[in-house]
Amino acid sequence: MGLLCGLIVWLVLDPLQSRALGEIFQKELQQQLEQRARDSRHRFQQYLGQWRLTATGLAQNWRLVEYVKSPAWAQEREKPKTYLNRLPAWMAPAPVSLGAVTPSQIVLLDQDLEPREIFHRQDLPFPLERAASRYPGGDGALLTTLWKAPFLLVWAGVAQPVESKAAILMLIIPLDTIFLLDSQQAVADDETVVALLEGDQQRILASSDQTKVTANMLLEQLRSRYLITSQSITDFADWDQNVQFSTFVSRKRVEATAERILSTERRERFLGALAFVGVFSLLFFLVSMRLHRLLNRIASFGRRALGINQPVSEKGNQLLLLEAWIPDFFALVSEAVEQARLRHELQIRESEALKSALLDSSLDSIVTVDCSGMVVETNGTAERTFGYTREQMLGESLGVKLFHPDDRQQFGKLLQRYNQSAELVAASAPLQLRAFDAQGDEMPVETVVMPILLEHTTLFTVYIRDISARRRAEREIESLATFASDNPSPVLRVNRRGVITYANAASAPLLAYWSLEPQQTLPLYWRNLVLETLEEGGVREIELSGDEQIFSLLLAPFSEQEYVHIYGRDITQVRNAEQQSRQHQSELVHVCRVSTMGEMATGLAHELNQPLAAIVNFASGCVRRLQAGIGGEAELVDAMAQITVQAERAGEIIKRLRSLVGKNASEHTLVNLNDLVIEVASFIEYDAAKKGVDVRLALEQGGLPVRVDLVQIEQVLLNLMRNAMDAMQQTEADQRILVLSTSRLNVREVAVMISDTGPGIPPEVMEKLFDPFFSTKQSGMGMGLAISYRIIEDHNGSIRVTSEKGKGTLFSVQLPSNPDLKLPGL
Ligand code: ADP
Predict the structure, then answer these.
(1) Percent of the chain with pLDDT over 90
(2) Which candidate, 57, 105, 58, 107, places its Cα nearest to that of 80?
(3) Could you tell me if 692 and 738 are in contact, meaning their C-beta atoms sit under 8 angstroms apart?
(4) Beta-carbon count within 10 A of 352 CB
(5) Which of 396, 419, 400 is CA-nearest to residue 409?
(6) What digits encode the pLDDT tens for the residues 174-193?
(7) Is 159 a pocket residue for ligand 1 (Cβ < 6 Å)?
(8) Given this model, what pLDDT does residue 766 score?
(9) Transmembrane ranges (predicted)?
(10) Which carries the bigger pLDDT value, residue 775 or residue 754?
């Protein structure tokens, strides 16, 4: 196929190309010939010019110049002097020539243009007078013909002194074959001939090759053999005849060249075409191979895809096989298409079902109406929201059915707007309308209308959303918004820089205290508090005592927004109540103490009894001795001293009692804890003996220095001891043991322990043990432990209780001590 194509292309293109090439060649040849002719003529003219220069050179030769000055030249002569085959004296011995050309005559003319001396190279007569008559004056040259032969005449004036006669040198040069050949300097090849032509008759005057182009031949005779270009000789316009310069190029030679070029070119074209055909065939082969494989693959793919056996065969034309197989293929494809269509329909049905399910499950009521507002379709939500069935709504006017009479117009206008302007394809802005359900209950709704542009008509989808819940929420938010402003307690918002950005009405006393208005900056102390709160991130509570009110301020940071909220609480009354309660408490403590003292009175009376009895004894002893006049002065003095000691002791007891009952202000003094225990133990000594309690002391050696309010700590110890004795009432008489012990826990802490063998404290009692007014005793006030707890707390100490049912209870009081505390005398 490739070869055939190549051949056809070749047969069509070859003659065309050959002709086109021939034309190009002819044109090119013409130009070449003209160029060559111009070159030949140019060389010829240059050669003529050189002869002119030669003549000038000869005229200036010193021999000639000398000769013209000599008397020989000056004398008159009848006839010109002729030299033939010998050189005249005025001429250099070297021959006058250019290449192979020599002048046929060299003539010296005088000022009258008379030939005076003639040098003949050839014995050829020449009409010298005629030649001389054409002298143009000065140096010059002329072309002429004589006896049908062309000649070049060249003149040059000989340099001479003024007094001698003038002399003119004239060269006569025949324009023959040699001249023409020489003029071309052998550039022209032997097939090219140059010639001089007589223009009018078109006759040859002289040629560079006499054998081919002979003188006197007519140009017409030569045209068959030569391509001829004739030109006039421009530099020598005064040629006395119409002489032209012709260039003859051999036709045979040109044709041979043309033939050679054309054949070479054709050979190359042929080779090119051959290469083209080769490449084309190869490509064709490769493409067909590829196509073959592709068809093979299509066939096997089809077989696999459709599960049929046709048509793959390893060899043979796959196209033919495919053609036979294509109907089967189409049958199978249309079957597959049918199946796909069925599947698609099923999918559409499913998607329709899905869509309607989606519509039904939409939160909005969706109602489709036509352009007059009549219901065309509705979803389940609409049925549920308004309580109408779909059938009840279809064909009804949506506006009349659902909307409030005052709002129907608004809805109607919206539909009208869409009806008038077909370009409105976007949904409308939501309309807030009032709607009624089937029960006649009103609800606020938001309505959006979306046009559906169908081919012949326009429908509208109306989305109706029940916004009662949203309205409620909005109202809730509105009421919440007034939360802070309605708050009777101060609420403020302060930003990071301490500027009060919000303050409610109740904040007025606070602002007055700071002397600030809202949007002003808090004082430095408060600014720093705000910053610290923001940085630490925790809530902090600060108390602020104004002129009349006391506020508790809660600073809550909102780090993300760089705000601190200040919630104030007027705690003036709370603080006042606390103050009062404290007063009550101290009075209560006093009362309690007095009551304790009442109970202790018997004990104290017994104690006072001893010194008083001793005083009575000593005093009556003294009286007796004085009355009897016995005993010395020394004895009396001793007795009196004893009386004083005992009276002091009694005074001491009274003083202690007073101090215990008195409402003295708290006063901390440095004491030995052991002394306190011994002293209080002495108070209960009597009572204990009465109740059959065995009081045992186990005190730390070396004393325990504490800085305490003596009276208060004594009161605590008294309370604890009394409770212990009370508890042991139910204990067997010989088992009632009260142990009072002290110890140093560490350098900073000392303790006093009161343990009894009572019944122990049940857990339910243990829980309320330190509560005020909690007592299990009939006549108990329930203040003893509460006050004790408070007193120990005020001393930065602590009270701990351990109790074991049926075994007893241990109260331990820890008090702070100090290594620096030194008891006097220890
Ligand atoms: P009061 O002695 O007036 O009842 P207290 O505050 O001193 O008030 O004691 C409260 C209660 O704690 C007592 O009623 C008693 O039930 C219980 N209690 C105190 N000490 C002991 C103790 N050592 N053993 C058993 N119960 C005790």
Answers:
(1) 20
(2) 107
(3) no
(4) 10
(5) 400
(6) 888 888 888 887 665 667 88
(7) no
(8) 93
(9) 270-287
(10) 754
Distance CA 450, CA 460 (A): 6
362-473 and 482-570: identical CATH topology: yes
Q: Which amino acid is at 241?
A: Q
Distance 727 CA to ligand 1 centre (A): 8
Q: pLDDT per residue over 497-513, tens digit each?
A: 999 999 999 999 899 88
Residue 806, pLDDT above cutoff 60: yes
Residue 611 has pLDDT above 90, yes or no: no
Query: How far is the centre of ligand 1, averaged over its atoms, from the C-alpha of 723 (Å)?
Result: 5
What residues have CB less than 8 Å from 77, skipping those under 6 apart? 116
Say if residue 603's pLDDT is above 60.
Answer: no
Residue having the nearest C-alpha atom to atom 22 of ligand 1 = 724
Distance 451 CA to ligand 1 centre (A): 88
User: With 0-12 CB in 10 A as exposed, 13-18 as middle and 19+ as buried, what is 144?
Assistant: buried
Whether the pLDDT of residue 799 is over 90: the answer is yes
Query: What is the whole-number distance in angstroms between the Cα of residue 786 and the centre of ligand 1?
Result: 10
Structural domain spans, the chain: 1-78+139-335, 362-473, 482-570, 573-665, 666-826
Angstrom distance (rounded) from CA 365 to CA 386: 9
Whether the CB of 539 sits within 6 Å of ligand 1:
no
Q: Tell me the two tokens of residue 531.
A: 């910053």
Going from the Cα of 707 to the center of ligand 1, the distance in angstroms, rounded, reads 27
Cβ burial 425-449 (10 Å sphere, 16+ → b, else e) = eeebeebebebbeeeeeebbbebbb
pLDDT at 11: 84
**362-473 placed in CATH 3.30.450.20:** yes
Instruction: Give the Cα separation of 819 and 814 in Å (integer).
Output: 16
H helix or E strand, kind and range, residue 95: none
Query: What separation in Å is there between the alpha carbon of 232 and the centre of ligand 1?
Result: 165
CA–centroid distance, residue 726 to ligand 1 (Å): 8
What pLDDT band is residue 824 in, cutting at 50, 70 and 90? confident
Domain 573-665 has CATH 1.10.287: yes
How far is residue 736's CA from residue 730's CA, in Å, rounded to a whole number? Answer: 9
pLDDT, position 343? 92
**Which atom of ligand 1 has the smallest separation from the CA of 723?**
20
The number of beta carbons lying within 10 Å of the beta carbon of residue 528 is 12
Which comes out higher in pLDDT, residue 238 or 435? 435
Ligand 1 pocket test, pick from 775, 781, 789 with the greatest ligand atom count within 8 Å of Cβ, gives: 775
Taking each helix axis as running N to C, give the angle between helix 784-794 and helix 710-727, from 0 to 180 degrees, rounded to the nearest 10: 140
Cβ neighbours around 796 below 10 Å, total: 9
Q: Is 758 in the pocket of ligand 1 (CB under 6 A)?
A: yes
Q: Say which CATH architecture domain 482-570 belongs to.
A: 2-Layer Sandwich (3.30)
In the sheet that 192-198 helps form, which strands lie side by side, from edge to edge? 203-207, 192-198, 243-250, 226-232
* CATH class of the domain whose range is 666-826: alpha beta
pLDDT beyond 90 at 227: no
Task: Give nearest CA residue, ligand 1 atom 23.
Answer: 724
In single-letter form, the type of residue at position 807 comes to: K
pLDDT at residue 662 tops 60: no
Q: Does the CB atom of residue 777 touch ligand 1 within 6 A?
A: yes
Query: Structure pTM?
Result: 0.36
- Residue 64 and residue 4: Cα distance in Å, rounded? 86
How many CB atoms sit inside 10 A of residue 39's CB?
A: 14
- Per-residue model confidence (pLDDT) at position 725: 92
